[in-house]
TrEMBL record:
Lineage: Bacteria, Pseudomonadati, Pseudomonadota, Betaproteobacteria, Burkholderiales
EC number: 3.4.24.-
Protein name per the record: Zinc metalloprotease
Membrane association type: Multi-pass membrane protein
Cofactor entry: Zn(2+)
Organism field: Pelomonas caseinilytica
Amino acid sequence: MTTLVAFLVALALLIAVHEWGHYRVARACGVKVLRFSIGFGRVIWRRIGRDGTEFTLGALPLGGYVRMLDERDGAVAPQEREQAFNQRPLRQRAAIVAAGPAANWVLAILLFAVVAWLGSEVPKAVLGTPPAGSLAERAGVHAGDWVRAVSADGQQWDEIESLPDLQAAVARAQALAEPLHLSVTEGEGHGARSLRLDTERLAGRAPDARLAGEIGLVPLQEPLIQQVAPGGPGAAAGLLAGDRVLSIDGQGVPDAGFLRDAIRRSHDGEQPRPMLWQVQRAGQAVELRPVPRMVEDGGQRIARLEIGVGSLPERVFVRHGFGDGLWRGAQQSWDMAATTVQLLGRMLVGQASVKNLGGPLAIADAAGQSARAGLVPYLEFLARISLSLAVLNLLPLPMLDGGHLMYHLFEGLSGRPVSEWWQRQLQRAGALILVLMMALAFTNDIAARLTGWH
C-alpha cells in the first residue's frame, strides 16, 4: 500500500506542477485556458476558476493536459480571437510550451535544495574489501579507505561528503565512458593517495547488481551474519543470525566485503569447497564447516551459502546552509540532466545499453522504498523523477513539448508553420517511438529481479 500511495502522490504532484507551468505562462500571455486537467477518463472532481478555466481531476491519474482556446480546434468567437493560442506571437507560444518542463526543472532544483537544507544521515564514503577482479581491486582500494574527492581528469576535484555522492559520481562516469579518479585517505584522514577507477571499460552496461560487483566499491561493514535462509547450506552448517565471522580457513576476516568474496570463490571448478569457519557467538568462539552450493549468477557459476551478511555502515549527518544548498540543488539538477541527455544519446547510437531505461514498475518500487526510508529520501526521489520528466518532455519527439518546440523553431527559421500534413505524419511516428520506448522500459522492469543471498 505504501508503494502505491507514494507512486500516486508522486505522479499527481509532478503532473500538476508540469501542467501548472503551461497554465500560468499561458494566462500571463493572454491566452484563454479552457480546461486544466490532472488525469484522464471519468471526471471525479470539477471546479470553475475565476478566469473561467475548468479545473478537473480524472479517474486515471496517469497524465494531464491544459486545453487552450485555439482556432485549429474549432470556431472561436470574434471577441475572443486575440485570446487564442494560435494568434499569439511565436515567442509567446514557445514560452507556453517550454513552461511545463521548466516548472519540473525548477521543482527539482528546489527539492534538491530542501534535501540539502534538511540534511540527513547517510553512509560515510568508507570502503570495504573490493571483490576479486573488480575495478576497485585493480585500482588499489583497501578496506578502510575513505574517499574524500573525485575527479574526471585528476586535476579538478569535487568533494565527496557521503557514499551516495560517490555512487552518483561512479554512475555518471560509467554512463559517460569516462575514468574516475579517487582521492582517498585512511580512516583517520592520513595517508592521502590518488587512485584511478577505469569506469570507461564498463561503458554501455546496464546498472544492475553484476555491474556493481564488477565496479567493486562496497561500504565498509562488519562481518556479521544478518539472516540465514531456511534449508540453505548456511543453515545446514549451523550458522545463525548474529554470528560474527572471525576467520575462514585460518585467515582473519576484516569486513563483510572480504567475507562475501571468500564465499563466492569457495569452489574448485564446478565443485564447492568446504570451509573451516570460526565465528563468535554469545561471546564464545565456535567452529563450523559450511559447504556452499553452486549456482548460476549472471552467466557465471559461483558458490553461495544463502546467507545475508554485513552490518549498517558508518553514517554521517550532512546538511547545507541556504545559499550552499540552493547552489547544490541547481548543480545537482544540471549534472543529472546533462548525464541523462548524454546517456540517451549513447543508447541511440548503440554505445549504452537500453536496459538503462526504467518504467513504471521501477519508479513505483523506488517511490515505495524512498517513502519507507523517510521524508528526505522521498523528496530526493521526487526531485529525480521531476527532472527526468523535464528532460523527457524536452526530447524532440512529436507529442512531447520538445517536438512542439521544434515546430516553433522551424516556423521561426522559415517564416511559416509546419504544414498539417507533416504534423500528422510526425505525430504518428512520434507515437510509435513513444510506444516502443514504454514497451522497452516495461520489459526492463519485468526483467530486473535481483537476489541478495551470498
